[in-house]
Predict the structure.
Amino acid sequence: LRLWQHDLMGGPMNDYHRYVRAGKFEEMWKECDDPWNEKGECYEASPCSIATKYLIRAQDQVTTCSLGSGLGRHLDWLNVSGCGVELSETAYRTAAFLYPWLTFEHANIVSFMRTNTMTFPNFLFREILWYILPDWAEVVDILKTKHQGALAIVELSFYDNQKYGLDYFNGPDDFIAKWPFTIEKIVREHTTKQQREGRLMIAGRVP
């Protein structure tokens, strides 16, 4: 039975957040079988994920690097060749076992971006950016230095009463205004009158 409470970012959450707040991703994956409770039907019901899938598949080169790939389900659902990067060894090993036709790397996202020598035409940051906020500027710089012309995609949830991360991005409008790449597509789902609650998908080319 999962316990629900109120997240610091606003809105309900389940017990995996207590691990996330402490940076204990390995412990989270060991204790929570499926912390985000995501299946293929969840992606099919999300306009943002659908937009991501079709945008990637419309490219001449569809190989995708998914940063923070978890159990690999979303990367497999995209039905493209790719590489998933995951900090948790448990999640990494599970993903590699479940989806042997994909490539997975056990690494910190920023460390991977610094040392990676592979070239990817598409980079996906799906619901991971809040967890790497202090390093986002460095990630952007690495993309601009090493991966010009690549497609960068972010999917990210916002909340009307959000408290964390506002010093970086004060809602989706501010995130869009500070987007460091070109803009090829924007999708917003389940937004409220304040235009914050819900998920944002934004994609563009790295200059």
